[in-house]
Write a structure and sequence with these properties.
The protein contains ten helices and 14 strands. The protein is an alpha/beta fold. A five-stranded parallel β-sheet has the order 1-6-5-2-4. It is globular and about 50 Å long.
């Protein structure tokens, strides 16, 4: 079980490593104009999602993902560290995207930009840059990706445990969904572990604390949330404490909640 996260101290120590590429995993252009020195922008919504999908943040085709990676100078031999401006939020999504595209050498910066700034490490003004084109190729890993059909089948077979990262009030249908047109509730048979319970001050809780919170059955795990982003936070938390096989239901509640023929529980 490889540790998927690194500290800001580790990154600072390894800044001069050959083949290191630092990526700011953004969902929306951040308001602050600061980044870790040497960062490249990994624009999830606009460059690393399927723009033809009606669902948000959907996995792009391997060909489109690889082309976007090459454009920002990523190579097959690149050692990638991803971070985000909130500490831990969108960076796990970038981590999973690389994993599902077959790139193993990728790590998440625990605490992200806030932790980096707190330690007084070097930053720079965000800027548009051109890079020498990389040679990145994608090798899609279907075992890390689940469709609604596979999740629906699992509601019957219960071969895997489905873990929902949304807030408990959304899971229990005690509040309206933030996206219009979605039913409230959760996928039958799923359990609720809000991703916010796994973090403190923008960092993952220590492994001992995670073990107290996380249900770890002897079966595969499927992670879901609102749109496939925070599910990746839960996936990394489980990666820190278990060797279970793990996958993301990419459509998540945005897909499930809008399809009236799919079963729900409240």
């Amino acid at each position: 079980m490889k540790n998927p996260i690194v500290s800001v101290a580790w990154l600072h120590k390894h800044l001069q490593d050959p083949d290191l590429i630092i990526l700011d995993a953004i969902l929306e252009m951040p308001t602050e104009d600061v980044q870790i020195k040497g960062t490249r922008t990994f624009d999830i919504k606009n460059k690393f999602s399927d723009s033809n999908s009606a669902l948000p943040n959907t996995v792009p085709s391997p060909e489109a993902f690889a082309a976007a990676c090459r454009k920002i100078g990523i190579y097959n031999g690149s050692k990638i560290v991803v971070y985000d401006a909130k500490g831990i939020y969108s960076s796990p999504r970038a981590w999973w995207l690389f994993k599902v595209m077959g790139h193993e050498n990728v790590l998440v910066l625990d605490g992200g930009l806030p932790a980096w700034i707190k330690e007084g490490y070097a930053t720079e003004k965000r800027q548009e840059q051109l890079y020498e084109e990389g040679d990145f190729t994608a090798n899609f890993q279907p075992q890390l990706f689940k469709t609604k059909e596979q999740v629906l089948e699992n509601t019957q077979t219960k071969e895997a445990l489905l873990v929902d990262a949304r807030s408990t009030d959304r899971f229990l249908a005690e509040t309206e969904e933030p996206r219009a047109g979605l039913r409230s509730g959760h996928i039958p048979g799923s359990i609720n572990i809000p991703y916010t319970k796994l973090l403190k001050d923008g960092k993952f809780l220590p492994k001992e604390k995670l073990k107290e919170i996380l249900t770890v059955p002897e079966k595969p795990l499927i992670f879901t949330c609102g749109s496939g982003v925070t599910a990746c936070i839960n996936m990394i938390a489980y990666e820190l404490v278990s060797d279970n096989s793990k996958a993301i239901y990419d459509g998540s509640w945005t897909e499930w909640g809008q399809e009236v023929n799919l079963p729900i529980e409240k």
